[in-house]
Amino acid sequence: MKWAIIVCAMVALSECLFQVPLEKGKTARETLEEQGLWEQYRLKYPYNPMVKFDDRFAVGNQPMTNDADLAYYGVISIGTPPQSFKVVFDTGSSNLWIPSVYCSSPACNNHDKFNPSTSSTYRHNGSPLSIQYGTGSMTGFLGYDTVTVGGLAVRNQIFGLSQTEAPFMQYMRADGILGLGYPRLAASGATPVFDNMMSEGLVDQDLFSVYLSANSQQGSVVTFGGIDSSQYSGSISWIPLSRELYWQITVDSVTVNGQVVACYGGCQAIVDTGTSLIVGPQSSISNINQQVGATYSQNGDYTVNCNNIGQMPDVTFNINGQQFTLPGSAYVRQSQYYGCRSGFGAGGDSLWILGDVFIRQYYSIFDRTNNRVGLARAN
């Protein structure tokens, strides 16, 4: 598997984009559906996307959740000689962690595990690391080593080595998670990978961007240090952050057929590559799903008639004076086992998450220099 692309443009000064291709793999839900275990799993480990953004854990333990629909992962390497791992590039958290040889949880046994004894550049830290999930936790300790991401070698990068992992990780293709949030969010005071890229001058610009392909298994990519103009069309809309902890912005309203159906008077939303759906408060999500013709099913999803996708109305997020519209083909997910499901999920009291359903439509740029998010129509 190719795990690094370096694209350089011949300009007055050479500018290079360091890119990590993302695979769109089978989700945990799909694996469980194939095995006839989804209903049992769903009831035992209920989905709680908002636990990840609970302010009680904003500093210290970093909560995450069992998102069974995460599909995108990329390959990084750690150590000398390099050991490769598949990770979720997650803008909603700030820690890097991977399974280690010291972990005996079922989730570790079917994933690649880091062995520090075989890396000549590894340094032990030993401080404990605990990352709380919605339905379990990852525990381990911290170490330092060279982490290579998209051709960029970040030396002495602090990262977590797991000793226990929550059961749901057993069904995920990714081995671990690489957080791309702000440093204040990181558990145990660990400096995030991208912050070290910036401080070491490894990137031309202090920003990164994400392109998620809608249909193809390949073509998705995370770009460090620049913007790839081949991955979007039209102009970039720049949106200032409303909070510099997560990639949080203000949404003015959500409309269907020109009528406000959610986010009356404005609401807060986090642009998060580590969440698969668009998530909002129960009443708002119920209203949106009702407007688009989705009905709540006993297995916890909002379902639609697959034959109606072409006639379903657009859902528009009005942000900073601009309209970001999602057609039915963008917000409906199809499954060979459970038909067609809405990409709008409920959770939390007021906060929204603009996850992969949104990012597939809009090329997303995360600008640390100016503390803003850029959105443009994805190609």
Average predicted local confidence, pLDDT: 87
State the end-to-end CA separation: 24 Å
Order of strands, main sheet, comes to 3-4-9-5-8-7
Strand content: 35-45%
Q: Give the helix proportion (percent range).
A: 10-25%
Which oligomeric form is depicted?
single chain
Treating each run of at least 4 consecutive H or I residues as one helix, how many helices? 7
User: Class by helix and strand content?
Assistant: mainly beta
In angstroms, what is the radius of gyration? 20 Å
Q: Residue ranges: pLDDT <50 for 5 or more in a row?
A: 10-14, 56-66
Cα shape: globular
- The total count of strands amounts to 28
Strand count, sense and closure of the main sheet?
6 strands, mixed, barrel
